[in-house]
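Title: Prediction job returns without error message
Component: structure pipeline
Severity: low
Priority: P3
Assignee: unassigned

Description:
Job completed but the reporter wants confirmation the result is attached to the right record. Sequence as submitted:
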Amino acid sequence: MKYMFDEHTFSVCAYGKSLYLEQCIKSLLRQNLKSNVIICTSTPNEHIKHLSEKYNIKLYVREGKSDIKDDWNFAYNMAKTRYVTIAHQDDVYNKRYTEELNKMIKKDKNFLIYYCGYRPIKNKKISTDVNCIIRAMLRSPMNIGFLRNISFFKLATLAFGNSICCPSVTYDKKTLGDDIFSSALKFNIDWDTFYKLAYMKGKFIYNNRILMYYRIHDDATSKEFIDNNGRIDEDIYMFDKFWPHFITKFIMKFYTKAYITYSN
């Protein structure tokens, strides 16, 4: 198969027997501008193997216990291209994702991360709630070219919560190197990683077009961490990186209300 966008790879993190993995794969193969697609897993099974064979997609299996940090680093490292998007198995991509990414790269090839607007899929419907609107407002400074390389403004987009949806992100491996996920956190590993990257020299480039949709369902990791209160502890830990603890306590009174997004 000849790829039109050889510099980019969608690296799909697959776990267990997801009902939504095939839909995710289809959305990647239906891109207006084709690029590489691979599947990575630490939980190999017939379901994942069958879909990799059905769609002629290379499958990489990581040995060892399933772990988000190790699995994400594995998926990131297995991509042999300069640019990689770590796709989560439950999510769906607009057919213009790679097309928009390629347009941006032609204008500005060097960056730390590129990311886009997104919406949740809840009860099989794409929704827009107050949470989405607020997060879009937090991301908006990265629309302004000269602010994209300034750590203060990169951090400002993260100071009131993680406004960046991890599977919407494309990483520049030439700039970042290998094993970029080093956080000890389990749920907020992405927020903590973006916090680290914000201090690095390089750009956060944001495209405000809605090009990715993340799925909310009972088996989602986000919902699991909310149900066992793991998210609260990690959210407090992250806010304390930006604010004095008494301000964190005030922010959390409002921030926890956003958890309702993950309730059915």
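Comment from assignee: result matches the submitted record. DSSP finds eleven helices and nine strands in the chain.
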